[in-house]
Write a structure and sequence with these properties.
Elements: H1 2-19, E1 26-40, E2 46-62, E3 67-78, H2 80-85, E4 92-111, E5 114-131, E6 134-152, E7 157-167, E8 171-183
Antiparallel strand pairs: 1-2, 1-8, 2-3, 3-4, 4-5, 5-6, 6-7, 7-8
Length: about 180
């Protein structure tokens, strides 16, 4: 009887430890934001690009509770004020961008569910715009940075608010975003 009982106790201990495993390292999410953009002309002049609306869809892999890597698709276009009032300088209109990004993600938990975080990395993008009634585009590589706050529920759903800064060779984007993510 003891020979049958010992493997049963060992198997129960192994399966019990699996049930108390750490949270999954996989997170998917999206953010929507609003901010400002400034456009840099080829001659170096800087023009006010007006306001902008941004979106970001991402996947994050957490190496531990503090460090991860965050990659996604980002895009943006002129905002409400730009659309209503056609706010342009130097004949630059209809500025929009799209691209991919990857960043190192670091978070600092401050209480159960609450944490502050920062992202720092790079983006590859394409900026399209109209200048002097002629459609133009520019592709390149730039930085990507964000800092914010997040609350994660026990269900795996997280809510966040962040400040994003995306300097590109032709366009600087700054704004505030809110997001929703899920740890699965």
């Amino acid at each position: 009887m003891m020979k049958l009982f010992t493997p049963l106790v060992v198997a129960t201990a192994i399966f019990s430890s699996v049930a108390i495993a750490t949270p999954s390292p996989h997170i998917v999410g999206a953010t929507l934001g609003y901010g400002t953009q400034s456009f840099k002309a080829q001659n170096g002049d800087q023009a006010d690009g007006g306001d902008n609306m941004t979106a970001d869809l991402y996947y994050r892999y957490m190496f531990n509770n503090y460090i991860g890597i965050d990659s996604g698709i980002l895009f943006g276009t002129g905002g409400v004020v730009s659309a209503l009032f056609d706010a342009t300088l130097n004949d630059v209109k209809d500025i929009h961008y799209k691209g991919i990004r990857s960043a190192l993600y670091a978070q600092f938990p401050v209480s159960s569910g609450n944490s502050f975080y920062a992202k720092l990395g790079a983006n590859a993008h394409r900026v399209e715009y109209t200048i002097n009634k002629e459609d133009q585009s520019n592709s390149g590589v730039g930085l990507y940075g964000a800092a914010g706050w997040q609350y994660r529920f026990d269900s795996g759903i997280g809510l966040n608010a962040e400040y994003q800064y995306i300097p590109m060779p032709r366009l600087d984007v700054k704004g505030v975003s809110v997001g929703l993510n899920y740890r699965f």
